[in-house]
Design goal:
Length: 382
């Protein structure tokens, strides 16, 4: 079904985000059905979208929470996620953030360096607790995605590189207040070449054997997130191919008896249910280019400016099949990167037309800024 904005929102002041909670529920149903046969534990990465109505649905569907800040840990708990289903990742966790997560007794810290482990050990001792940790390894697997959102290569700041792992494990033996329970890897985002997850699985298999040779048998494996979505054709593929995704791990990851496998998905859960709605302020024709200047910009949706990413754009005010022209669709912000798309074919577009910028549910509203002293666009749900 092509996208339609519910009638009650058509006269709403723009810009605003609209979330289709039915599509979110359908996505969650497909996800949990695909995860069930292999008994995968799915954690939702809050950083993709942390709005409470969305978190409530995700929590109801039985997912855990993957957090990358103290604020997200607090939000997850506020939204009703049980602390025993919360994991906390991030390359730079502050003492205050770790203390908050320790006090809540979250399930697991995904730790990324020896200095971090030392601080965590001290803070846990001070609280009279033992922190469960998974070591985030950098498996040096190419995710074949945009360089700005790849995280699993040696050149990235994330994780512990494999040559350093032996040293980290030795250090762990001297930290009595942290308990090693697992391995964690997250190699990138918007991954559409799913064989990447087979390569990741094989790396983890080797690592596990290596760890077992050193006397460490780990009850948990966390393979991160990164499953991509179809930004080009959101109506053809509103729900990601979760079956093939989990199938990769079922086929290639050698699970030890009783071992639990965790995944952390953000984008794949929420991207397609969110749309940014904006009206055309002006159509400006210059010698070479026809610009559609919108009332939304990079302050509402930063992904195109940040990563040059593509979002499908539709003019909802013109009937389908109208003759089309090429427009550069831009925002009002004083930055040249404030551009949603170049040479986009749209029906002849005029002032006040309502445009839908699709697939904006993940890494959209959460990255909104007040640059140029702009107000925050509201979120509407149905
Ligand atoms: C961002 C992130 C995720 C989620 O990534 P998606 O590509 O949105 O699925 C999962 N785990 C960690 C550690 C992350 O930083």
């Amino acid at each position: 079904m092509p996208f339609q904005l519910p009638a009650e929102f058509r006269d709403q002041p723009t810009p605003f985000y609209y979330y289709d909670l039915d599509l979110l529920d359908q996505t969650l149903a497909a996800l949990t059905a695909a995860a069930r046969p292999g008994n995968f534990q799915v954690h939702y990465a809050l950083k993709a979208n942390s709005n409470l109505p969305i978190l409530a649905r995700i929590n109801q569907a039985g997912l855990g929470a993957d957090c990358v800040s103290g604020g997200e840990v607090a939000r997850a708990l506020e939204a009703g996620f049980g602390a025993e289903h919360v994991v906390f990742a991030g390359v730079g966790k502050s003492d205050a953030e770790m203390n908050l997560a320790l006090a809540a007794d979250i399930f697991c810290f995904n730790a990324e360096s020896v200095p971090e482990l030392r601080v965590l050990d001290e803070l846990a001792r001070a609280q009279g607790r033992r922190a469960r940790v998974a070591l985030r390894v950098n498996p040096n697997v190419d995710a074949y995605t945009h360089p700005h959102i790849t995280t699993g290569l040696d050149a990235n700041k994330f994780g512990i590189s494999l040559p350093d792992l032996a040293g980290v494990i030795d250090q762990l033996d001297q930290l009595p207040n942290v308990e090693l329970i697992g391995l964690h890897a997250h190699i990138g985002s918007q991954i559409t070449e799913l064989s990447v997850f087979a390569a990741l699985s094989r790396k983890l298999n080797d690592l596990q054997t290596w760890l077992e040779d050193r006397g460490h048998r780990l009850p948990h494996l966390n393979v991160g997130g990164g499953l991509g979505i179809d930004y080009e054709q959101p109506d053809q593929h509103p729900i990601p191919d979760f079956r093939t995704y989990f199938g990769m791990f079922e086929q290639h990851l050698v699970r030890r008896p009783g071992q639990q496998v965790h995944v952390e998905l953000g984008r794949a859960v929420v991207a397609q249910c969110g749309t940014l709605l904006s009206r055309v302020l002006y159509v400006k024709e210059s010698q070479h280019t026809r610009f559609a200047i919108l009332d939304a910009g990079m302050t509402e949706l930063m992904r195109p400016a940040l990563y040059g990413s593509h979002h499908h754009i539709q003019n909802l005010s013109r009937p389908a099949g109208s003759p089309e022209q090429a427009y550069d669709v831009v925002g009002p912000i004083c930055e040249s990167t404030d551009t949603f798309g170049r040479a986009r074919l749209l029906p002849e577009t005029s002032r006040h037309d309502l445009l839908a910028i699709r697939s904006a549910g993940a890494y959209g509203e959460v990255m909104a800024s007040g640059y140029n002293l702009r107000g925050k666009a509201p979120a509407l749900y149905r």
